[in-house]
């Protein structure tokens, strides 16, 4: 009887125990407000992105709530964190999954590299690196050289003014179409390009799928893009790929086999990751090239240094001779200048991870299923990490080992460093070579302010007045 009374008494205290536990858990949440359900702070954040004041938006949160705070972004409870320790936590912690906002997941699929973690992430990353590793990409420098020359001949030669951003998007899209699909320009490429623009516009949008919304248009475009990529995959699978396993990205992924000769990636995995590589290689590279042109128009010292480096390479070759891998290795200052632009104005402002279980950071609880949001500029513009952070100084990257780990995160860091780093480097250096050796330019708009949607862009697309030095 005694034990029965004791048991009943203990049971009566269980509800109180769980209530107290819930209260303690709630008080351990970071400070801040989740705001209106689903919407939360999404609208104010998107406005700040549009006005290119998202850095200040984050700084204001830090001043109000401290280095860790909770909010709601894109329909999901979110914890914003920043700093070197936060970056390391984001890029290395196994309790976090790279789950992007619902808008991103819907458009790119569940098996894209940015969504995966653990063994799945290693599996897909390893497949992509079969094409994106330097020893493979060096084979394609000449092909990229040809695309860049063709671009300047078609879109720049003989012109007095051009608008940079749409042209850089055209260039990077054509490079990706050539190297990822290995298909000729034509009606299919033109249709894909139009759909691709519609898809990208919905990446960071409130995930409400109603007619005539940006998100709805992006979903429709994504579905049609998937059909095109599936058709290309079937074309590649119907051919013998063994003779040229590195002909293009899709052919490479289609030809990959496991130890037991089974297909390494499903068709859906290939579709999801081709879309991801397309966005990563198109939007960010086009944005970086546009920012390079914008900066050099206002910085004659850096322009002169890049021009000197590139002219030395140009004079060592005939005008018909394409650039080589060895030529790119000589473009050290040009690449340091590009890295510095990425430090000051990273094309991707920040990214999201999601907790796989209740997780602690900085003494606070981040509940299972919540998003973790980080922003690159919070360490890039920290004067305790980079002295005079607002000053443009490519010499910061002469010795990259001197930069503290997890502080420069333009390409991610640690096991999450961007697999397309070398692809981007080749793309930027080849383009900058022909740009500075063949053209001079100056800005011809009063408003060269930047916006984010979600990638950084000049509000007017950066119109410039150009003068050709000599014929390509």
TrEMBL record:
Biological process per Gene Ontology, one example term: secondary metabolite biosynthetic process
Alphabetized GO MF terms: heme binding; iron ion binding; monooxygenase activity; oxidoreductase activity, acting on paired donors, with incorporation or reduction of molecular oxygen
UniProt keyword Cell division, yes or no: no
SUPFAM superfamilies referenced in this protein's UniProt entry, alphabetically: Cytochrome P450
Keywords attached to this entry: Heme, Iron, Metal-binding, Monooxygenase, Oxidoreductase
Keyword Transport: no
Pfam families reported in the protein's UniProt record: p450
Residues that bind heme: 418
CDD domains: CYP90-like
Entries under PROSITE patterns matching the protein: CYTOCHROME_P450
The protein's required cofactors: heme
Family: Belongs to the cytochrome P450 family.
Protein name: Cytochrome P450
Species the sequence originates in: Aquilegia coerulea
